Amino acid sequence: MDTSPLSRSDEHPAALPYPWTATGLVLEQLGTGLLHPVGEHLCLVGRADDADVHLADAQVSSRHVLLSCDGDHWFVQDLHSTSGTRLNGFRLHDRAPLAVGDVLTVGATILRLEAA
Q1: What is the pTM assigned to this prediction?
Q2: Mean pLDDT, consecutive 10-residue segments, the chain of 116 residues?
């Protein structure tokens, strides 16, 4: 399955508007219009080539932050990144619940969790 970021302007079949995200969730990279699909149970965000959401941001660690699903609830956890992670403007110290509309600041990149 292609997991490359798409923009809101990309065309999708009407029957399956976002077939590239099994969860129905995306991380929108604010200021760019890019949408990154969120995996079914885990989503690694970082600079590493194998990150689910690869960010070309020098302030982002290779393995910066992890989104994980526990039942019906999503959580976010900073992976001891150098520059830290902010959730809705507050520095993230522990695993925290995540909801649609929440904003993550990862390095100099701002991501918002959205329903696809």
Answers
A1: 0.79
A2: 40 34 77 87 93 94 94 92 96 94 95 88
